[in-house]
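Chapter summary example: a protein plus pantoate.
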Amino acid sequence: MKLVQTIKELQSELDALRSEGKTIGLVPTMGALHAGHASLVKRAVAENDVVVVSDFVNPTQFNDKNDLAKYPRTLDADCELLEKVGAAFVFAPSVEEIYPEPDTRQFSYAPLDTVMEGRFRPGHFNGVCQIVSKLFMIVNPTRAYFGEKDFQQLAIIREMVKQIGFNGLEIVGCPIVREADGLALSSRNARLSDEQRIQALQISKTLFASVEYAQTHTLAETKAFVESAISTAEGLRLEYFEIVDGSSLQTVCDWKDGSYIVGCITVFCGEVRLIDNIKYKE
Ligand code: PAF
């Protein structure tokens, strides 16, 4: 495995491999890798000849500068994990390498990017599209892998690729990876104290319980069930819970209103902002 820090070096390595007809898988990450990332990389390794993992904390997607400052940075540990799971290249550029000039491009995929995270994190998805589009142009991958934990991000990236094309690039969405007790894996979990870790467990517990509850209750009742359970849970503060169509991301009012229905939640546990989602129908 090779650690590469410049676009020029990465492209000369990849051009050589591409000219031999090799397929290239890309797994974009912001580092602080965990088993969820490992599962994306393993899938990419199984489906492509060569896998590039980008490890770059992208400043343009942080609307909260405090969150950017506190984002964990663990490149050495990341490289150790990536070597084990079979990545060929770790691309860890500097901010100046990626943004020699401020990126003034505007990406808008309304109404996909105006709801949920788009409402609470203005500019976030614009920043995600800036970095992801740059990575697609730099790496020119055959396939790119994203986790379903960031459900809205995945939908927006799919739409961006539909509109821009990126040489027929295929986007592969991969299921959420959870701890044995249900907590969705996230780089932000590292910031939870032991007590908060226990409190955060209520998020996935409530989502799982709501799938059961939904069998015999209306959509509105199910939404209220989740909102009330999280709002009254010790140490948690609900930012939003929406039950949406899994493709359009727009809220649905009745279980009969769609064949793909997903509940998306964002909760603060202390200062740590956690997201999760659950499928009710697919
Ligand atoms: O999901 C993430 O970790 C980031 O948003 C991504 C896709 C790597 C872009 O910085």
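Key point: The CA atoms of residues 45 and 51 lie 6 Å apart.
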